[in-house]
Amino acid sequence: MSKDFIQSAGLKLVILAVLFVALPLLLVSLDKGYIYQVVMLALIFSLLAVSLQLVTGIAGLLHLGHAAFYGVGAYIAALAGADYGIGFTLGLPLAGLGAAAIAFVVALPTMRLVSIYFAVATLGIGQMIFLVLQNWVEVTKGPNGVSLFSGIDLFGYTVDSELGIYFVVATIVCISIWVIHRLSHSYYGNALRSLREDDQCADAMGINTVRLKIESFMISSFFAGIAGALWAYTTGYISPVDFDFAESILILAMVVVGGLGSIPGAIIGALLLILLPEALRGVGDMRNIIVGFVLFFSILFLPKGLFGEVPALNFIRRQMGAAWQDNPDKQKVGWK
Amino acid sequence: MSAMLEVADVSRRFGGLMAVDGVTTSVGEGELVGLIGPNGAGKTTLFNLISGFTPVSSGEIRYRGEKISGLKPSVIASRGISRTFQNLRVFPNMTVFDNVSVGAVGAIGQSPWQAIRSGSKRAKEISERSWEALEKVQLTRYANELAANLAYGKRKYLEIGRALAMKPDLLVLDEPAAGLNDSETAELAAFIKELHAGGLTVMLVEHDMGLVMSICERIVVLASGRKIADAEPAVVRQTREVLEAYLGVDE
Amino acid sequence: MIDPYYLQQLTIGISLGMVYALMAIGFTLIFGVLNVVNFAHGEVYTIGAFAGIMAIAAFGPPFLVIVFIVLAVGALAGFGLERLAFRPFRRFSDEASLKSRAMREATLMSSLAMSIIAREAMELLFGSEFQTIDISYLINKPIELGPVTIVNGDIIIFVVSVLMLGGLQWLLKYSSIGLSIRAVSNNPLGAKYVGINTDRTIVLTFVIGSMMGALAGILVGLYYGAVFPSMGFIPGVKAFVAMVMGGLSSIPGAVIAALVLGVAESMSTTFVSSVWADMVAYLFLIVTLVFFPQGLFGARRERV
Questions:
Q1: What is the mean pLDDT for each group of 10 consecutive residues in chain A (336 residues)?
Q2: Share of residues in chain C with pLDDT > 90 (%)
Q3: Average pLDDT for chain C
């Protein structure tokens, strides 16, 4: 028991130490704006991939419009900041809630669709949101995008150094991923998995399937909105093309490459698909074609992903101390 | 014996076909009732009507005096009726324990807030109840195995275990013995009897008469969607219509 | 008397609709035999357009020769696509895995990956901007018909599409290839048991569907004079919408739905700015999926 506790606490500490001590030190010593951008992008896309994992990998709803909800969050935060003087402290939750509210509206009619029909419906919804961002010029400023010059205000303090923004982004991404980790690695998560496996059968088990689908879609969109707000504040400029279909596919590819259903897999997928194209930057702007190849080969040769659901759940249960083991056999099963 | 489940003049039409045609029957508290009939008699349809998977065309189904026909399957399940499926429907990519926990979480419930809070009382309750159900079906040693990797016979027990984790008052088994050999069927019969002895009301559909005749206290016989007999096994065995339905004897 | 403006829009709408129909048929045929969505269909359309303008640039052949070149390239693209993105996932040929959700979603994503690779490769080769096309090949020469002015492209698109649609109907009804395609759509396993080579039939379906898609690409390319690597995405989505509206496996349904979609879109520009015209297709899609899960014309057998 104590050994497990130390082990799981140790792993968590290592992750936190890397994020909040080692990486910042490295960033300061390198002192390059470009590296900050890449690291920030990796953090934000980790959150996007993890939030998509909840709805696509765990609840089994193939979602082809995730980037649109990311865009909604980014626009809410940016427009609130630029046009209405609403700062980060209030803009961040507004971005999440706005994305979740839109998710709720579109989820009501579409949640009864299954499999590829749901996928295509989300593609349509994503495109509709994209068209609105692109063409509702009076509000969104259309293809010109929105510039946001204000720094991050945190309850009165203004954070505008790159390092400061890094700490804010890393903290919020960590908390958000932790929340999704708790949701997925719990009996609530098991109920979501049962929807993916056989939603009619889940219904017979007393699971309110429609409600659960809507909930997971809203939670996922909430965090996509949060990621959008973080993106708006880190780059200071957003435009509709940041949130188009290709971006949705990029996030989906991260989830698939990492392993459907696996939260750590989604993070690995996000890191891979952000860092690999950056590493190959010398060859030219190959990001999308790399995404295409990685997606194709992983579906073909690694259908369960780099860190598939089964090993990932075992890892979380054993190494992260999330299992229930208060049974006569002392087996690590279920969730705490 | 008070009637727990009442089926009152229930019909279900599929296009021009009356799959279930004006069936009236009931299940009393603590009974072990069998539902038999030849292929296409409407047994599974009647089951689907009871569990809410198929809406009734006419008539009414009541559970403990309250109308349940027209409710969603999940609502009916949470009232205390849990079912298994004819064609094994376990969740293949989830572990045995996680499969069973879906039944428990369906009955107990866990909101997103409760899920986020680590080590909550509710999670403990679900864990304990799932373990208990696994013990009942003797699958604890496979707890961390994927359901897909389980042998066919074991998966049957897993499905029953998942239903038991809901702590139902009425357990509805759809052809539990399908695909099992004789010794497995006998084992299953003993297990169902044991569940019944523990106070559970059980209703089971069987295509094959053997299992039903040996364990059920009362048997309802369907043929072409109509009820043709509703009596003790010994009486049913003598009923002329039943013999005709099964053997195709002419007048 | 009807305002000539509406007649004008109607003509444009029918031309658009015909192009969507050509693409939608590719989707519908493939969905019929495999029950999967071919996400790379839009790129076949782009490849068709590029093949056509490359032929024009290289040796300036007559129009009919271009059509045949494009058809050949389309056939090749369809063949390659099936080999790379679909066949590897048909490891098992029992009914359950042929129609399983895992197979459908895997091929949806593999064809999506193929479409990204094809589009990006074209961007790397040709750049993302409009390609230059020899003006004499464009099919936008105005023709006055009383108060209405149409272009020769409207007539060409109409004639070519009708010929292709007619040819396809003939092929499906009277040829042995058509018979095997219909058999596999109805029951892949049954077809296999009676000795139909299902793999060959599936390839042929991709070939035929892709020929039509590629032809639609060059027609639109020459009609608008706009050929660029990402041109296939939006028509692809619209053709898909037409397939869903038509009831998934009904070719006449898909054609009618495509025409309805094309006309609705061109008429909508009367009321709203043309940048919103794409919204019409997405609205049709959502409304159809939610309120008419059977499609507008056909009866669908499965759960949507």
A1: 66 87 86 85 96 95 94 95 88 96 92 81 92 90 86 80 90 96 94 92 92 95 97 92 91 93 95 88 77 90 91 89 85 87
A2: 22
A3: 84
Q: Which CATH number fits domain A2-319: 1.10.3470, 1.20.120, 1.10.20, 3.10.590?
A: 1.10.3470
Q: Between chains, do B105 and A182 touch, taking CB under 8 Å as contact?
A: no
ipTM surpasses cut 0.85: yes
Q: Which of C106, C237, C303 sits opposite A114 (nearest CB)?
A: C303
CA angle B222, B225, B226 (to 5 degrees): 60
Can chain B be said to touch chain A, i.e. do they have 3 or more Cβ pairs within 8 angstroms?
yes
A202: part of which helix (H) or strand (E)? helix A187-204
Min Cα–Cα distance to chain A from C113, Å: 5
In B, which residues are within 8 Å of A190 by CB distance? 94, 98, 101-102, 105
- Identify the pLDDT of residue C146: 75
Q: What pLDDT shows up at residue A303?
A: 86
Q: Give the CATH number of domain B1-70+200-251; options: 3.40.50.300, 3.40.50.620, 3.40.1190.20, 3.40.50.150.
A: 3.40.50.300
DSSP B50-87: HTTSS--SEEEEEETTEE-TTS-HHHHHHHTEEE--SS
Residue B130 at interface with chain A, using a CB cutoff of 8 Å: yes
Q: Could you state, in order of their start, the residue ranges of all structural domains in chain A?
A: 2-319
Check A334 against B107: CB less than 8 A apart.
Answer: no
Q: Is B63 left (phi over 0), alpha (psi -120 to 50) or beta?
A: beta
Residues of A in contact with B103 (CB under 8 A): 205-206
Q: Which of A289, A290, A298, A304 to mutate to test the interface with C (most CBs of C within 10 A)?
A: A289
Q: What is the pLDDT of residue A323?
A: 84
- Compute the C-alpha angle B127/B132/B138, nearest 5°: 125
Confirm or reject contact between B87 and chain A (CB < 8 A): no
For chain B, what are the domain ranges? Answer: 1-70+200-251
- Interface touch A206/B131, C-beta < 8 Å: no
Residue A91 backbone zone (phi > 0: left; psi -120 to 50: alpha; other: beta)? alpha
- Does the CB of B86 have a partner CB in chain A at under 8 Å? no
State the Cα–Cα distance between residues B48 and B54, nearest whole angstrom.
5
Alpha-carbon gap, residue B242 to B240, rounded angstroms: 5
- Range from A53-57, C122-126, C238-242, C297-301 that averages highest in pLDDT: A53-57
> Beta-strand (E) ranges in chain B?
3-14, 17-28, 32-36, 58-63, 66-67, 81-83, 170-174, 201-206, 218-223, 226-231
Q: Report the gap between the CA of A244 and the closest CA in chain B (Å).
A: 30
| Listed range (A199-208, B227-236, C61-70) with the worst mean pLDDT | B227-236
Task: Spell out which residues of chain B touch residue A330, defining contact as CB-CB under 8 Å.
Answer: none
DSSP B202: E
Q: Which residues contact B160 (CB under 8 A, 6 or more apart)?
A: B84, B137, B171, B173, B176, B191
Chain A partners within 8 Å of C289 (Cβ) = 110, 113, 117, 120-121
Residues of A with CB under 8 A from a CB of B: 179, 182-183, 186-191, 193-194, 196-198, 200-209, 215, 219, 261, 309-310, 313-314, 324, 326-327, 329, 331-336
CA distance A93 to chain B (A): 17
- pLDDT tier for residue C27 given thresholds of 50, 70 and 90: confident
